[in-house]
Amino acid sequence: MATSRCGCCCPLRRNRHYSRFDCDDEETPLLSSGESDHHGDVQSSSNKDYESLDYNDKLVRNLPFDLLLQEHERDKHFWIKQEIMKWVVTFMIGAGTGIIAFLIDFIVGKLSELKFMVVEKSINECSTEGCLAISLLYLLAFNVGFVLIAAVLTVIEPIAAGSGIPEIKCYLNGIKMPRVARMKTLVSKAVGVLFSVAGGLFVGKEGPMIHSGAILGAGIPMLSSTTCKCVDCRYKHFRTDRDKRDFVSSGAAAGVSLTWRSFFCAMSATYTLNFFRSGVDSNQWGYFFLPGLVNFGVFKCKTGDENCFLWTTPDLLVFLIMAVVGGLLGALFNRINQSLTEQRMQSVQQRGKKAKILEALLVASVTTTLTFIAAMTLGTCSQIMIPITTNGTNSGSEGVRKFFCPDGMYNDMATLFFNSEEIAIKQLFHQDGRFGISTLGIFFIFFFFLACWTYGVGVPSGLFVPSLLCGACYGRLVATVLVDYFEFEHSHLGTFALVGAAAFLGGVVRMTISLTVIIIEATNEIQYSLPIMLVLMV
Question: Which InterPro entries match (predicted)?
Answer without folding.
Answer: Cl-channel/antiporter (IPR051280), Cl-channel_core (IPR014743), Cl_channel-6 (IPR002248), ClC (IPR001807)
